[in-house]
């Protein structure tokens, strides 16, 4: 009876959509926003074709932007598909998956506007150690194990390290940033919940802090300190690139342009 009950549940779910591939019912007037995920297969654009062998997707984006939801969806869709059930997608092409490993936080309260600051790989250690560990994990997964991976991170130095690595594809949850004054700490973020190519420029953590009702003076103090850290980090990266430029005379205008951009950001 239990097996029959499960099969009937899958059948009812599969017949509940409005097309050959079903999608979940929407509530509270929300729109369904489709997101394309290509892992280890050719994509539809020229940029996708260049990294058609990438098995690892490095996912960035603001807090509450939909990163965890996107990753959960991918895992659940694969499980549903291998159960023989229709999935909430316009199309799905995949090779069989023998297991799914996850490391996700589950204490978000999105309906209440609350997101978890969940630190995955650096908890209990220093920031630089955490970045190094995360980088080593990405390298192992992408270049040696070669399993299909969705790796969410707020380490933007990690994104820079793998920007030109053909085993890693970059993607982020899109958002729209508005600021009616010159104070960057007063940015207003609108989440678009759309997964697009490339890396998110920053995590917009102060927006999440404001949504969590932290005192404004605490946010302003944190923003000043963050700016100091950012300048220090940019200076170190600039020094590293200058050393590379001095040692390798073949580096062209692209490398030089990145140096100019770093100087502008100081």
UniProtKB/TrEMBL annotation:
SUPFAM superfamilies: P-loop containing nucleoside triphosphate hydrolases. GO terms for cellular component: MutSalpha complex. GO terms for molecular function: ATP binding; ATP-dependent DNA damage sensor activity; mismatched DNA binding. The keyword Transferase does not apply. Residues 54-227 form the DNA mismatch repair proteins mutS family domain. Keywords: ATP-binding, DNA-binding, Nucleotide-binding. InterPro entries: DNA_mismatch_repair_MutS_C (IPR000432), MutS (IPR045076), P-loop_NTPase (IPR027417). GO terms for biological process: mismatch repair. Pfam families: MutS_V. PANTHER family: DNA MISMATCH REPAIR PROTEIN MSH6 (PTHR11361:SF148), DNA MISMATCH REPAIR PROTEIN MUTS FAMILY MEMBER (PTHR11361). Belongs to the DNA mismatch repair MutS family. This is DNA mismatch repair protein Msh6. It comes from Larimichthys crocea.
């Amino acid at each position: 009876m239990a097996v029959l009950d499960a099969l009937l549940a899958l059948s009812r779910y599969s017949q509940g959509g409005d097309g050959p591939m079903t999608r979940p019912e929407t509530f509270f007037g929300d729109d369904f926003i489709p997101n394309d995920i290509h892992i280890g297969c050719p994509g539809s654009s020229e940029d996708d074709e260049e990294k058609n062998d990438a098995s690892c997707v490095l996912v960035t984006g603001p807090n509450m932007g939909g990163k965890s939801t996107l990753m959960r969806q991918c895992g659940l869709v694969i499980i549903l598909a291998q159960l023989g059930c229709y999935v909430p997608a316009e199309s799905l092409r995949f090779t069989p998956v023998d297991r799914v490993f996850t490391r996700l936080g589950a204490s978000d309260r999105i309906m209440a506007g609350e997101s978890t600051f969940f630190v995955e790989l650096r908890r209990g250690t220093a920031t630089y150690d955490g970045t190094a560990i995360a980088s080593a994990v990405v390298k192992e997964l992408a270049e040696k194990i070669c399993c299909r991976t969705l790796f969410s991170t707020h380490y933007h130095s990690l994104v820079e390290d793998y920007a030109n690595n053909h085993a890693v594809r970059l993607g982020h949850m899109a958002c729209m940033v508005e600021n009616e004054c010159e104070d960057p700490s007063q940015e207003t973020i609108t989440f678009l919940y759309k997964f697009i190519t490339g890396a998110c420029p920053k995590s917009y953590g102060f927006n999440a802090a404001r949504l969590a009702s932290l005192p404004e003076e605490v946010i302003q103090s944190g923003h000043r300190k963050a700016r100091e850290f950012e300048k220090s980090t940019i200076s170190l990266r600039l020094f590293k690139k200058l050393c590379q430029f001095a040692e390798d005379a073949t580096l062209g205008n692209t490398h030089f342009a990145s140096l100019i951009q770093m100087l502008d950001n100081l």
